[in-house]
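Service request form, structural biology core

Requester: graduate student, group of Dr. S.
Request type: structure prediction, single chain
Budget code: on file
Notes: please return the result as structure tokens.

Sequence provided:
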Amino acid sequence: MRRAAARYGSVQPGITSWHCFSSGPHYDPTNAGFGSVIALDEHAVAAGAGFARHAHRGVEILSWVLAGTLSHEDSTGGVEHVGPGTVLYQSAGSGIEHTEANASGTEPLRFVQLVLLGPVAAPRHRPGESPVAVGDGEVEVLVPTHPVELAAASHTLVFVACGSVLVNGQRLSAGDSARVRDTALRMQGDGEVLTWRSIPSPR
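Core staff response, request fulfilled:
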């Protein structure tokens, strides 16, 4: 379990970010990934601000909007405006450049972004609802007001974006996360939870 206060923080004009894994100047070789996950970030983006054009290769990126509207444009010509309740999936594949910005000139944007190692193939993107199949696993957004049970997987990552949730009897609050190996989970609470589970393909 990793508490919100243990995350690394970074600030740039109009953007405040919190990183659950080693990131940029916060290099930590003991916290570089979990399974195929290499980043789990929460971003607060002021009105009119955003991330300038930058490149990715060989990764899969999922953006989950909590508040506001995320504007996405990439070098394949893709343009998306994504609001709460929608997950934006992107595969950087053999290489892609994109920008991510707050689409509003007046309202703040808050979103969570998960980055996983992925195939080097043709870049693609799509907005949709969870669950989302990603590489060897699945990402799902849950609101466990009633008990939710997840079967054991080789790797399960849980991130609480807001509210409070009991996970196997331990309370996680906003910004807290848990990394679980080979253990079934039972969750209940009033929070919004992002989960990633490694689910190998059947032989």
